[in-house]
Amino acid sequence: MSIDDSMNAGAGAGAGATSMETNTHDLFGLEGCPQRINRSLSLNLTDHTYLPKAKDPRRDWVASVALPALRSYAAVHGESSVDTFATIGTGAGTDVLAAIETLNPSTALVTDLHEEVVEHAVDNIRRNVPDSSMHTVEGYVGHLGEPLTAHSGTIDLLYENLPNIPAPTHVDLAAGQATSSFFDTSALAGVPAGAHRYLLALHCAMLNQARTLLSPSGRVVCSIGARAPLTEILDVLNSTGFDTELLGYTWKIQSEPEEVIGGYVDQERKGGGPFHFYPVDALARVLSPYSPQQAAGQAKKIEQDLAGSAFDVDTAFEAVKRGDPVGHTVVAVQAAPVD
Ligand SMILES: C[S@@+](CC[C@H](N)C(=O)[O-])C[C@H]1O[C@@H](n2cnc3c(N)ncnc32)[C@H](O)[C@@H]1O
């Protein structure tokens, strides 16, 4: 279904709807004034909305991954290379605000699995730009790119930061933010075998669908927590028929750590991986000399430099249970369909 951009603020809010007042410095770590979005940000959220980690950009996906990746994209392809931008699984809509700031698309399409998440995201985007008539914002509800077939045009840039972990039986995907970390494995036809082993299946399923949604020069940017070796991640994505290039290599403190690392422990027991995490101080030490864009050019070397500090999944799980901060590297991969 489609939710157009004339929806009222808060429409469809379920129990647990809440709001967050923040600003582009606290949320995105932006110094100075943003160019195309408001400096003060007001976000309406629901129980199902992936929570922006305001005041801690290193825990926030948009601040630490999407924004630098979209900046790199603008640097490589030009600030006016994207007329229509789409996010698959938008959460609060802050990834679209980052796209408006960096690439100024005239049309932004947002999707998520939960209707009220999409309603609020559309409204959050419109409310946090100085002139909402400058951007058409359309919301769509459904699995991956399926609802976007209702949109009449093609997409120049599709961004995704989808979950990696197949939902175990004890996880209720209808509850809280479960769909931010876990996914339903029932609708994943045609993904390569390595995608299951390295927990990249939803990203590959999205790439399979993207082919028919993209404009002739359109691309996908996949944001992926890199708990598998870099070469395996890129090989798996390439095997879907896309050319890939690293746009960014950075790190994040593991959010929802017990839930997520516990999920990796279970998947490794079932034959996945092997996966790895790192202590936060090692990530900060090794990666701090580089911007995400610079690190992308040195990613293999950085991965080797980090290897001596890597935690296997059990060590990482023990560390978070003790309260020690654990993180992981993240790749922002640009993917273009091979003809
Ligand atoms: C980790 S959150 C990312 C939110 C936001 N894009 C960001 O980067 O902060 C993943 C989002 O994807 C959504 N999602 C999960 N599975 C999905 C699917 N099959 N189709 C569409 N959205 C999905 C979740 O509901 C959640 O909002």
From TrEMBL:
Q: Give a GO biological-process term.
A: methylation
Q: Which InterPro entries match?
A: SAM-dependent_MTases_sf
Q: Which GO terms describe its molecular function?
A: methyltransferase activity
Q: Which UniProt keywords apply?
A: Methyltransferase, Transferase
Could you identify this protein by its name? Methylase of polypeptide subunit release factors
Q: Which organism is it from?
A: Actinopolyspora biskrensis
